[in-house]
Amino acid sequence: MSFLNILPKILPGTFLGWGLGANDASNIFGTAVANNIIKFYHAAILASIFVIVGSFLEGPKTFDTVGGLAAITKGDLAAITLGAAVSVAFFTYLKLPISTSQALVGSILGIGIIKGSDIDLKILLKIVLCWITTPLGAFIIGFILYAFIKWIFSKFNYGVLFYSIFIKVGILLAGIMGSYSLGANNVGNVTGIYAVHMKIANLPFGLSSDRFWALLGGISIAIGIMTYSKRVMETVGKKITNMLPMMALISVVAQSITVYIYTNVGVPVSTSQAIVGAVAGVGAVHGFSSVNFKSIGRIAIGWLMTPIAAGAVAIGTYFLFKLF
């Protein structure tokens, strides 16, 4: 199968990648940008570069999980990815950091159910368990890391200059780490089902089919970061808890570690869920009263609505395609 023959079919997938970059990738530098630690466009350039690198080098690790969830055909791929993409774009417009993973799974299940396709319940259970443990794991990692770093800086007097340099360098390194983790983990949401169901032959530069899909997905995510990711940053960075620079740094580190762990588990998870859990965990070090649970509740409602909305849009798109 040649690339030119499938180009029209993959446009919804690249749209999903754009939406993922616009929504999920803002979580990488969101706390730092919202708190004026780094300028948005500097963050966006760094994030775009390392999202592509992470996608290309480790993205294929999560392809089989999403691609094997349900017995779907090549003709279903456009409806599935478009359903997820429209949902992600809608919630991004509402400035809610939602889960692209949940949007895609909701779309796959919606199409699978109306077609009576077999659903791999073992894979579905694995994915759902990872959804649940992602914010919890990030909360625990964020709480422990921040409590430890806070203790270190209180015990040893490093001075204001050292603290300032530590924060700025740390934010850059954490952002690079987070961007790499995002690409490695979440490109499976963008082009994973294409990689499983559409193998492309005769690619240039010695690219394998999986590497090609990983690179394409990474580039589409990067475009979303550069063009529209700023909208979600205020929600993530300021409305969950009042962020100090060190808190912003540790939140990104905790989120990055969490997402990378799930990359090696083989499940694409939500950076939105990871950063919200990490921010809440870091804030809880100062006491749970400092955490804005009302804002977390609003975000959680978006998470619950995402797979339902994506499934409904995918079903509608599927029947619309049938008419043409």
Oligomer: single chain
How much helix is in the residues? over 70%
H-E order: HHHHHHHHHHHHH
Number of DSSP strand runs? 0
The rounded Rg comes to 19 Å
**For the report, how would you describe the main beta sheet?**
none
Uncertain parts:
none
- Give me the number of helical elements: 13
Structural class: mainly alpha
Give the overall shape: globular
- What is the residue-mean pLDDT, rounded to a whole number? 86
* Percentage of residues in DSSP E strands: under 5%
Summed up, the domain count is: 1
Question: What is the end-to-end distance?
Answer: 23 Å
Q: Which key terms come to mind for this protein?
A:
324 residues, mainly alpha, 13 helices, globular
Itemize the secondary structure elements and their pairings.
Blueprint: H1 3-23, H2 26-34, H3 40-58, H4 63-67, H5 77-93, H6 100-115, H7 121-155, H8 160-197, H9 209-228, H10 233-238, H11 245-265, H12 271-284, H13 293-322
